[in-house]
Task: structure prediction
Amino acid sequence: MRVNTNPGALPRVPRAVALGTFDGVHCGHRGLVARAYGTGLVPTVVTFDPHPRRVLGRAVSLITTLDRRFELLADAGAADVLVAAFTEEVARMSAEDWAEQVLRPIGTERVIVGEGFRFGVRAAGDADTLRRLGFAVDELPLQAGASSSRIRAHIAAGELAAAAGLLGRPFELEGRATMAPQPGRVHISPEPGTAVPAPGIYAGRALGWPVLATVAGDGPVEVRVAAPVAVRCPVLLRVELPCDAVTSPPGPSRLGRLSHPFVYGMAS
Result:
């Protein structure tokens, strides 16, 4: 899969473009890419960075990093990804001007969007706008009710099983890992602005081994591995957390006495 940030860098070929932010690349997002893939045109994703809400002054915690978004879009079947910069200038552009500057130059023939998709200044553009510009448009309903906003709400509440149901895979906590003072433990510092579950102890997997991840609020997440696994730190570590918290986070005096209770809520 090719990733570009400039429409002029992509060859002008007949394309089916799945259009959206694609944070989390959940079930609904993969449905858009699958529709693009099934058209016989070059399946392409046009996504935004930074997240439009951040540019518009509304805080948002991202479910996945941009690099992980690319990996998941490749797995979904995208041949090309165009990362459209979202700036204050872009936020002031009309929907028509944006489509002519971004979609037309790459050869877009068909656009696939989620139900209710809006774009352009004051969110004035929609599927009908794209049709008036001559694009064929597929507007798909939310698959299984999946939306990035709902998933973020589940993560913030510690409802990781519900989040996994909408994602179509376990929620992943990713960050730079450093060695903790205690043996068999590392500290993960998630990328600033990414979603972190509510405080609690969560069972999951990392490096192919069962782990417990302790989220205590602010600061790094402690990950304990249920095996003597050597982790070369610092390293980027991804932890799959498919279940709700197995217990509330213990106080400092209890934390040191917990000894690999990985049977609680462990997914196979």
User: Anything to note?
Assistant: The chain has two domains: 2-145, 169-255. Residues 249 and 255 are 8 Å apart (CA to CA). The longest strand covers residues 171-179.
